Every structure is written in C-alpha cells, then in structure tokens.
Amino acid sequence: MARIVILGAGLGGMPMAYEMKALARPGDTVTVISEAPKFHFVPSNPWVAVNWRTRKDIEVDIAPALAKKGIESIIQRAKRVHPDANQVELEDGNRVDYDYLVIATGPKLAFDEVEGLGPFGGHTQSICHVSHAETTKTAWDAFVQAPGPIVVGAVQGASCFGPAYEFAMIMDTDLRKRKIRDKVPMTFVTSEPYIGHLGLGGVGDSKGMLESAMRQRHIKWICNAKTTKVEAGQMHVTEHDDQGKPIKDHVLPFKHSMMLPAFKGVDAVFGIEGLTNPRGFITIDEHQRNAKFKNIFSVGVCVAIPPVEVTPIPCGTPKTGYMIESMVTATAHNIRELLDGKEPTHHATWNTVCLADFGDTGAAFVALPQIPPRNVSWFSEGKWVHLAKVAFEKYFMRKMQKGTSEPIYEKLIMDFIGITKLKGKQGP
Ligand code: FAD
Ligand code: DCQ
What we know:
- The structure is a single chain.
- The chain is of the alpha/beta class.
- It has two domains: 3-108 and 264-348, FAD/NAD(P)-binding domain, CATH 3.50.50.100; 111-262, FAD/NAD(P)-binding domain, CATH 3.50.50.60.
- 29% of the residues lie in helices and 24% in strands.
- It has nine helices and 22 strands.
- It has helices spanning 13-23, 45-48, 62-67, 130-145, 162-177, 206-216, 321-339, 383-402, 408-426, and strands at residues 3-7, 29-34, 38-40, 59-61, 72-75, 78-82, 87-90, 95-97, 100-103, 108-109, 150-154, 186-190, 219-222, 225-231, 234-240, 246-253, 256-260, 263-264, 296-298, 352-357, 362-368, 376-381.
- α1 packs parallel to α7.
- It starts with a strand and ends with a helix.
- Bound molecules: flavin-adenine dinucleotide and 2-decyl-5,6-dimethoxy-3-methylcyclohexa-2,5-diene-1,4-dione (DCQ).
C-alpha cells in the first residue's frame, strides 16, 4: 500500500488531496502537510483588503474537512524535503515517509529583491496572503480618512499581474462609493511591456480593453517599469523603452501602495539539485513529474514554467486557478497509473481561464493554449464577471468544505451555465 503525501493545502493542495483520495486504492493513505490550519481562497484577498470580505468568509478549517474524506493532515511547516530518503522533515524534527510526494507549496514572496518593498519592514502593502490583506485593510481604513495618491502594480520578475489590475480597479470602485475618488491620483506601475500583457503576451484585445478601463477610471500607468527603491511615501521607478534602455526616472509619491512581488520557490525545496530550477521552482515534465525524483510531482504556483516571451523587463507567466486544477487532475490520474504499475499518460491542459474582478464589473479571459499564437484568445469585460466571480468563490468554498472528489474543471462549464442563470434571475 502506498503513502501519498501532499505538501501545502492551498488552491492546488486541497483539491489535490480530494482527487487523489478518490482515485487512490482503498489501503493507500493520503496525508496533507500544511503550515497553516486553514485553507484560504486567495483570489478573494483583494476584497479582504478593502473590507468587502472578512478573513473568516474565505477560510476553511483543513483538518476536519479532510478527515471527513479519510485524509490525514499534519499541521506543521515542512522544513526540508529529502528526496533521496523519500522523507519530508517537519519543523519539529520528525520526518514523514512517502512513496509519492506532491509539492503544492505556492510561492515564497521575494519582497527582499526590491529595497523597501513589502509589509515586513518595507513601505508597500501586500494582498498575497490573507494576513497581509488584513493589514492592508487596516491601512485602508486610515487612508480613506485622509486620502492621497495611490501607487499600485507589479515589480520586475512578477508573474501574477491579474490581482494588481483587480486591486487597482477595486480600490477605484471603493473610493467612488465613498465619493472621495477625486482626492486620489492613481498610478499603475508594471514591469509588463504594455497594459494587458498579463505575462501572457496579451489575451484577445486585453491591451485595448484594459487601457480603456484604466482611462475610464483615471488610472495613469507606467509600463516597462523597474521599481528600484521604495521609501516611506515615495517610490523610485525607472521606465524603459522596448529595447530595455532606461528612458525616465520617476519618483512617485504615495499615501497607499500595493505592489505584487516576484515569486520564488519555498525554503523547504530551494536549492535541491535536480528538483528545482535556480529560482526554487519545481521542474516537471508534461506529466507534472520531476525527471530526477520520479515519485515527486508538483502542482500550482511552485512549478517551473518559462516566460511566454522575452520582455524588456522580466515578466513571469501567471499560474491561474483553472490551469492549477488541470495540473491536479492530471497528477491524480498519473499517480494512480503508477500505483497500477503503468506509466503516467495524463497531461494537464495548462489552459488559462480566468475571472478578474474590477469591483463593479470585471474581465474574463480564455487563452488556449497559453502560448500565442492560439486557437482561442478571448477577453471580455462586463458586470456579469463580477457576479460570476462571487458565485465561483461560493462554489469553491463549498467544495473545499464538503470535500469534492470530482475534477472541478470538468464541472465548470455546467456550473458556468448555472452562474449565467443566476445572473439572469438577479439582473446585473
Ligand atoms: P497557495 O494557494 O499559496 O497554497 C500553498 C500552500 O502551501 C499555502 O497554504 C502555504 O501555507 C503552504 N506551504 C507553503 N510552504 C509550506 C511548507 N514549507 N510547509 C507546509 N506548508 C507550506 N488565480 C486565478 O485563477 N484567479 C484569480 O482570481 C486569482 N487571484 C489571485 C489573487 C492573488 C492575490 C494572488 C496572489 C493569486 C491569485 N491567483 C488567481 C493565482 C493563483 O490561483 C493563486 O496564487 C493560488 O493561491 C495558487 O495556489 P497554490 O496552491 O499554488 O498556492
Ligand atoms: O480555480 C479557479 C479560480 O480560483 C483560483 C478562479 O479564480 C476565481 C477562476 O477564475 C478557476 C477555475 C477560475 C476560472 C473560473 C471560470 C468560470 C467560467 C468562466 C467562463 C468564461 C467564458 C467561457
């Protein structure tokens, strides 16, 4: 009988546990190691940061939810993976043996790569973790009492651009609701070569539509931007041309700022020869499997994916929910095939389908395949997206509480039809 261990209980790890348990043989064990006792629905963090959600609304207690499905959990940080010994070393020194390991740790946030960046001793806020979003919310409460300029965006090497746009639009919506938008000059600073690149080389007319949305909301932007230093109340940004040559230095004053950092791999795996790339991301083949350690798989933000294209300022490729769920399903099937003495055959589609919230409206995009030229490259804006995202949040939270075993993405289209009906009933 096999011991299957999943490291991390986020958007990748939790569905991974449920799908793996459903596909494993009766005597196999599935164990989740998580440093946090709760699962958090990360896509709702921007809403927590403006007090549209509380932390409680977007968290699920991991151990009881998993226990209902016969999945074990160890609530402790993994200190180090020891692939040669097939063990995960925990913070308390104990070691957990595995036959198969799925690494789903998400990112380490590289705030330290820009002086003064981030909420730990720096001067910018973060929405990457729900606890950061709570701190941002406290800062927001003070900010709306004495508003001033906002700088928001993503630094060089970032890959997760969607939430930066979302947060800019959500803050704009919140300020308009409060009737103080006129007191807040907003600047969007990004390493992307153009608005709407999204680390994907653009999707449909994402450039035109996002530029238009930003103009309508009076949000100025600086692209090809390298954030060189952040001080209390001001950000130093160097703008580059499309050859990557510096063209202008900006000093941007702010009273509130949120910048997405670059990501790298977590300490528990960083620097393991053959397992990770130089940034600490897990290298995998088309079956989500590591080439050197063939009983290790990986899903989610912690996997290594090359940039879609070379850009003047480095931009990574985003790993979005739908893509992650496809990695999860492929991995569960591939491990089952190994359990049956076969070779893995399942490929994740890695297609990009995403809902981005703009507060009152939103943008949906579909990129199939991820790298252009594509068969489908579709980007659309509307009020329905905001409603669909709220519906998707509820749907996903319920699934995590109930312990779904069905591949989430397979049911998605049906649920999407349900979402459309809901929207029709309620009206935009
Ligand atoms: P995570 O959800 O971060 O989960 C990793 C888990 O592993 C965490 O719980 C962490 O505590 C745990 N862990 C890490 N190291 C250890 C260790 N050593 N020991 C034990 N546990 C450990 N994608 C979309 O498709 N749509 C969106 O709207 C969207 N919004 C986003 C908004 C934000 C603010 C961010 C940051 C990302 C967003 N994404 C979105 C992208 C992506 O879907 C999320 O980043 C998602 O959370 C990634 O899932 P994951 O499982 O890889 O990592
Ligand atoms: O897992 C998802 C996720 O969580 C990270 C999201 O963020 C909220 C998503 O947006 C998934 C799977 C999605 C995609 C949800 C798509 C819903 C249907 C959209 C249909 C678009 C038109 C064809």
